[in-house]
Design goal:
Radius of gyration: 21 Å
Mean pLDDT: 87
Structural class: alpha/beta
Strand content: 15-25%
Number of strands: 10
Number of helices: 10
Distance between the termini: 27 Å
Length: 280
């Protein structure tokens, strides 16, 4: 199976759920994966969120190449006209910066409410993004900062709770999952590499093989050779042999090697790698 397969019914439901949640908020936190900023973004996000204010988090910066993080942040800000924060969410300063920026972005919205004679309230925000870009981690870190649940709002299902982060910010504690339908298979492969697509949708041996090509194409061949102690051609077969992962018939265990290659990349064991360059 050399293609990523999609499930249209699931995508349609995700779109409906996301639009319902977006109607409830003032500010949208969009999370991207710093290793694949382009592929982890949603091309039609502006149509999706309408006139909502947006803050973009370039997340997992602890796994990506620091030489490209700032370049990507600048490029995304220019293209989106939205502020971008580089974060790995392991740093409390990142969380404080996110909260401060939400307050700053929401100030004009709150002033408009006051002009209309409405009572002042906290800005309402939610986190959106592709699967596994760090939405839940973002929510959990923000919730630990606030901790106080404020209960359901009118028109919100009981499962959706608001958490008071501070007197000026409330957070919807459920993430908005952007549908991961992609007609572009090269983008789909990158999403599979960072685990943003269900494992049921792809063959791990195919994706691991493509990942090795992507890493080398991005200029990190040296990291692969250093980590896997390999001098010949960098393939799943040769990595399996280098690790002495052999199955019946003295054949390389490419299944095991593929699983480790994907895991090693996703956990940052190979090194800090950005698969997409800002010029792309």
């Amino acid at each position: 199976m050399s293609h990523i397969h999609w499930f249209p019914g699931h995508i349609a439901k995700a779109q409906r759920d996301l639009k319902e949640k977006l109607n409830l908020v003032d500010v949208v936190l969009e999370v991207l994966d710093a290793r694949i900023p382009r592929s982890s973004s949603y091309e039609n996000v502006q149509n999706l969120i309408g006139n909502k204010s947006r803050l973009i988090l370039l997340n997992k910066a602890d796994l990506s190449d620091p030489d490209y993080n700032k370049l990507w942040a600048q490029k995304i800000e220019e293209e989106s006209c939205a502020p971008v924060i580089i974060t790995d969410l392991n740093n409390q300063k990142d969380i404080n910066t996110i909260i401060d920026k939400i307050v700053e972005i929401s100030n004009p919205i709150m002033l408009e409410l006051l002009k209309k004679g409405l009572l002042p309230r906290a800005a309402r925000t939610m986190v959106i993004g592709m699967p596994n870009v760090g939405k839940s981690s973002t929510i959990n870190r923000l919730i630990r900062k606030g901790k106080t649940k404020t209960g359901a709002k009118a028109g919100v299902t009981r499962q959706q709770q608001w958490v008071r982060i501070n007197s000026k910010v409330e957070l919807l504690d459920t993430p908005g999952i952007i549908p991961t339908r992609q007609d572009d298979q090269s983008r789909a492969i990158k999403l599979a590499c960072v685990n943003s697509i269900s494992e049921n949708a792809y063959d791990s041996e195919f994706v691991a093989s493509e990942l090795l090509k992507l890493i080398q194409g991005a200029g990190y061949e040296g990291l692969l050779r250093q980590y896997y102690k390999i001098e010949n051609e960098i393939t799943t077969e040769n990595i399996a042999r280098a690790r002495n992962w052999i199955v019946k018939g003295a054949q390389p265990d490419t299944v095991r090697a593929s699983q480790f290659i994907l895991s090693d990349f996703r956990e940052g064991r190979i090194g800090k790698i950005t698969l997409e360059k800002p010029s792309v």
